[in-house]
Automatic annotation (TrEMBL):
The species this protein was found in: Methylocystis borbori
Locations listed in the record: Membrane
Membrane-topology annotation of the record: Multi-pass membrane protein
Name assigned to this protein: Amino acid permease
Source superkingdom: Bacteria
Main location group: membrane
Gene3D superfamilies named among the record's database cross-references: Amino acid/polyamine transporter I
Record bears the keyword Mitochondrion: no
Amino acid sequence: MTLSARLAPLLRAKSIEELQAEANRPGGFRRVLGVWQLAGIGLGGLVGVGIFVLTGVVAATQAGPGVALSFLIAGVASGAAALSYAEFAGMIPVAGSAYTYSYAVLGELVAWIIGWDLLLEYALVVAVVAIGWSAYLQALIAQFGVSLPDWAAGAPATGAGRVVDLFAALGALGVAGLLTLRIETGARFNTAMVIVKIAAVLLVIAAGIPYVRVENWTPFMPFGFSGVAQGAAVVFFAVFGYDTLTTAAEEARAPQRDVPRAVLISLAVALALYVAMSLVLTGVVRYDTLDNPAPVATAFASLGLRWVAFVVSLAAVAGIASVMIAFLLACARIWFAMSRDGLLPAWFSQVHPRFRTPHRPTLIAGALTALVAALYPIKEVAELVNIGTLSAFVVICTAIIVLRRTRPDAARTFRTPFVPFTPLMGVGFSLWLLSRLPAIAWVRFAIWMAIGLAIYFLYSRRHSRLAGEMKE
């Protein structure tokens, strides 16, 4: 057998037309989401811990008041990937996001790698966020003199007497249960949480403006431009999350029009909030006082505005809950898409007969993330989160360039501007960030990918729906 014949099964791809037809088959998801509900899912993934924590920590340790520039740089780089996602979302409005797009352009093996990769990353994001949500919730109830017993207050490695992080586990399970119901139920709850946290952020910005002192912005870049650039590498992880909404494309009423719009709206709104918050925060207090777990609340408490600090804590609890919703929704739908393609057992791709949601992957992913969030400290879980998203960005930006050459005739409701410059910028920035990740993260990632490749070659390659169609 020739080398090309051996490689052919690994490179088999779905056509765009086949994917579009797949999304419209009867018995699938309910198409109920509008552009603002989709944008709410994107904002749910974008606006969370970053705006309440990273703004202060990066200002104090790397960028100073220039953290506003760090967000702009990261936003431009993330925007390059967002524009690529928007073009794909308009062409292929199907559940699965980066996994499905890769299947259409780069073939089955690359699609499997990205899908397996994102299953881990999205699930771990939910676990990390659940741990952070638990910490904020415990801090909030402590203001009323209520506290959990030591055994329920955190993972075993986080302190003496601790056995389980009870709130983290309950948060992950609660989100899984919510997403098992009709998609509009979860979407409405998510939209409500997004409105609460954006209103709180706007309130904080408005309350802080009268207290801004221009002298606090001097020097604007105390660590130099290199510090601003390093800050951009850190805050980059606060300006992705819009990709979660593309996984819900099969539940959008007008996906080819609304999904690209929602991607761009969610990133633009989030970036504006981040820049405004960082300027106000570094204006009301000196940047070097912000290196603490709750810099926004601490800064306003130091001004005597304790009511603002309380609103920030409340908004953080609501905001972080919406992040869990966005990423667990994305994880379950990628799992569903891989199962529907035959790469995982078909049992996972059966939708709930009443609610029309992928209930099995949702509940299983929720239970697994609850277990991880309950028993492991946040640092150990967080180390693996970033590789998958950046890898997906590299693949998607590359695929846009490939597809412009191989399918210039395909109908596009949105076109990424300045191709190939825009997607190449996304590739370059993502590769740079990947190079800065710690070695231990790469080792753990390699183990996960080895397990995934074993599953692919032992099961998925033979059970793939495309393999069956080729035999027929």
